[in-house]
Every structure is written in C-alpha cells, then in structure tokens.
Amino acid sequence: MMDTNATVADRNLSRLSREPLWDRAHAQLREALLAGRFEPGSALVLRHLAETFGTSITPVRDAIARLVAQGVLEQGPRNSALVPDLRKSALVDITMVRCELEGRATREAAQKATPADIDALDALLADMRGMIARRALDAYLDVHRRFHFGIYALAGIPILDEMIENLWLRCGPILSFVVPEYVVLLKGTDHHQAALDALRRRDGAAAEAEIVADIEEAGRYLLSLADPSGRIRRRVPA
Asked: What's the CATH code of the domain at 214?
C-alpha cells in the first residue's frame, strides 16, 4: 500500500516538474512570434529549440502542439513546425476582427483607466518615440505591443485579451515588416497619442476610433506588400 502511494506521489511530482518547462517553452515561443522574430516560411526544428531552451524535446513538442492547434503554426516534417505564410485574404479578415476586438477593449478600458495607468502608457509611448528618433528600432515592436496590450488589459476582460493575443500571434511574423519604412517614414496620424488623450478624457468612443484607425492604417501598408500570389512579403530596400 505504501509503495502504491509513493508511486502516485512520484507521478504527481514529475508532472509538476514538467509543467514549468512546458510553460516556459510556450511563453518563449509566443513572445518570439508576437515580436515577429520568426519570418513567414521559417522552419522551427524541435531539437534546435530544445537545445536553445536547455530542455528535453518533450516540453518543446507540447508547446509547439498547442500553437499548431491554435492555428498559429503548421505541423512540419520530421519534428519541426512551420511559420505559415500570411496571405492577403487572411490579413483582411484578421484586420477586421482585430478592429472589432481591440476597439471594444479600448472602449472598455476608457471607463476603468486610472491616472497611474495613463502615466504608465505615456511612458511606453515616450520610449517608442525615442526609439524612432534614434532609429534604434530593435525593441520597438516589443514596446509597441506592451502599449497596445497595456490598454486592452485595463478592460479587465481576460477572454478578450486571449482572443486578441491569438490574432496577434497569427499576424506576428509579418508585423516586423512595418520596421523601419512604415514606422519611421510612412506612418501618418499619431493614433497612439490621440488614443491616450481620449483615454485620459474617458472618451471611450474616441479612444476606440483611434486604435481602430491605427490598426487599419498599418493593415493597408502590410496589404501593399502582397506579392502576385497574395503572400505578404517584406519589402526589399532598393
């Protein structure tokens, strides 16, 4: 009887010890995808990822399997996964849904944001401007994402955050294409500042409109990068 209990305890301890590794692998892959560090068409080899993370292949395989199930990655050959190409038609759909979800989250956030929340977002916006001014854009997309998700988190609707993150994961590999040309040279109205000003006034409709305009403007630029087959491709400098 004691042996049976010990076996059960061992299984429980083993399962708990694996979960942080799975979580860590999934979190690092998610962050890399959200930051656009993997180009469309890239092959992610599980063995190489496991070596990078310092883990066995099992937690990496579990993390990849979840991202494949979410439609973020595609199963590749021989213990690998593929970062899928994003086509023009899919980007149109993703942009439409992003506008609905992120606009709604922003409208809800306007009613709940505190002055301290606004100040924290203002600091992120200042960081983004400084990076653009210095042309130091390596970390720009990370700070840009923290700004957007900082707004959405203020809505206090976790399921909405999850849905928004899933959409960003799907388009993350092409979001890096906005750097540097669009961010530095082509971006029009400062929708980020206008959204922040509206949040400060608790004007949910205006804040929503600015975030939607920001998404749509970037979406139009990305759509302009589609090749003849409809795949979104990074613009090669002349």
From this structure: 1.20.120.530
Q: What's the gap between Cα 129 and its chain centre?
A: 20
Burial class (CB in 10 A: 0-12, 13-18, 19+), 118: middle
More confident residue, 182 or 186: 182
Q: Among 36, 64, 83, give the residue marking a domain's end.
A: 83
pLDDT tens column, 46-66: 999 988 888 889 999 999 999
> How far is Cα 55 from Cα 173, in angstroms, rounded to an integer?
25
Whether residue 238 lies inside any domain: the answer is: no
- pLDDT for 84 equals 94
The answer to whether residue 9 is domain-embedded is no
Q: Are residues 103 and 142 in the same domain?
A: yes
